Amino acid sequence: LRGLAAVCFGLAAFIWPDITLTALVLLFGAYALTDGIFAVVAAVRAAGRDSRWWVLLLQGLLGIAIGLVTFFWPGITALA
C-alpha cells in the first residue's frame, strides 16, 4: 500500500510539478517552524539543569527564522 502511494505521489509530481514543489516547500516550512518552537521550549526547560542550553535555544531560533522565511518567501526556499 505504501508503494502504491509512493507511485501515485511520483505521478502527481510529474503531472503537477508546480503544485508539488509548493506543497513540499510549505511542508518544510511547517516542519522547521514547529521544530524550532519545540527546541526553544526545550531550551527554556533545560536552562537551569544543562550548561549548554543556549545551543538548543540558538537552534530553535534559527529553525523559527527559517520557517518564517519559508512562509514569507517560498520562491527563495524552493530555489535554495
How would you state the average pLDDT, rounded?
92
Report the span from N to C terminus.
32 Å
Strand content: under 5%
Order of helices and strands: HHHH
Kindly report the oligomeric state of this protein: single chain
Tally of DSSP β-strands: 0
The biggest sheet, with number of strands, parallel, antiparallel or mixed sense and barrel status, is:
none
Helix content: over 70%
Our count of helices gives 4
Radius of gyration: 17 Å
Low-confidence stretches: none
Sum up the overall morphology in one term: elongated
What structural class do the secondary elements suggest?
A: mainly alpha
Notes on the structure:
Helices cover 88% and strands 0% of the residues. The longest helix is centred in the middle third of the chain and has 30 residues, at 17-46. The chain has helices spanning 2-15, 17-46, 53-72, 74-79. Helix 1 packs across helix 2. It starts with a helix and ends with a helix. It is built from 4 helices and no strands. With 80 residues, the chain is mainly α.
